[in-house]
Task: structure prediction
Amino acid sequence: QVHLVESGGGLVQAGGSLRLSCAASGNIFSINAMGWYRQAPGKQRELVATSTSAGSTNYAVSVEGRFTISRDNAKNTVFLQMNSLKPEDTAVYYCNVLTHWPVINYWGQGTQVTVSS
Result:
């Protein structure tokens, strides 16, 4: 019913940039929040950045000042601009969408981001 399509991952050198995108399609009346999570091998999945419908944003301390989350509400799309990438940013990045009406939490399939030294 709701499909999340992620793109933008890849291999980049330290200090470089990538821009991730996630487009939600399907039977969606309203999106309350959109965000990004990541999981590195052997580690727990962690919050990277979120954006609520009220305009509030939240970032992990480790990415604050380097990453920027933005949304195109008309297209139900969320972006993650990642600058000054570090090797420790290497992980699978997952898009997350929280809808209301109905209230459902959706996850994308994940996109690999690899940052070389």
User: Anything to note?
Assistant: The first strand starts at residue 2 and ends at 7. Residues 56 and 95 are 17 Å apart (CA to CA). The mean pLDDT is 94. The two ends are 40 Å apart (CA to CA).
